Amino acid sequence: MALRYARFLNTVVDGTEYREPADDAPIVAPPEPNGAGVWEYVRGWAVAEEAQQYVETHQTRLAKTLAITPPGGASDRVLELGCYLKITPALKNRLGYGEVRGCYYGKLGRVDERLVLSENGETFACSIDLFDAERDPFPYPDGHYATVLCCELIEHLSADPMHLMSEINRILKPGGYLVLTTPNAVALSAIAGILNGLHPGFFPAYLRSSRASQGDQRHHREYTPREIEQLVETSGFEVTRLETGEFRDRPHPEFGWVRHLLRRYWLDTELRGEGIYAVGRKAGAVRERYPAWLYS
Asked: What's any GO biological process attached to this entry (predicted)?
């Protein structure tokens, strides 16, 4: 239906025929971050069937997240927010961080000690602190971490995302790095959804109480790349990387008509991938606790 509509619209507007992109374009392999074999290493920790499905679905995103994460040293600490233990072992054993810690939603003060086993028999132990990332003070000292990963988390927050960003700023040392990934509200897929009368969000569905009680929340607000740029800068960071990409690289001929429309009307075709990838370097204190574009 979408392609039929695109062909009709383009013919009516400028008399040109819509040409669908080739559907035999090669699938791009996930990038190999910081040395060969890292992606195979990540897949080796997805032993359970559910974990394997998740990793396969998000393989490009996970590999790219590791690729844009600055490597660490034996004296450096890294914190993974919303830790699922998918890329966590690689932070220590491939990126070189001396201390790796995770956190997840739960009652403030509780710490879960997790031990995971790879398909090759390697073990990885990690402490997971529980707290509410948009309400509780993070249980870490000022300037404690060299790097903080905030991946696929901020879109789940319903009340106060700047609390999260302010606490990340506080616990990072001067010059420390924030790695942030989140779905892109203005991706080609979102535009296609709107023009076909569908919801553009990646996860707009309400969850049944059984799933919601486990801390698995729907997306409350999805962001545009420029909003993420504003958010990172307002939070006291210099943006060193801002780009978009896929969750899993594969041909998307079904969105060719959307890109054609954007170009036809001189609209921006950049930063239209499914996910946003941003890196910020801590440059100072939070500039504005409640930015007007985000809070009413």
From this structure: methylation
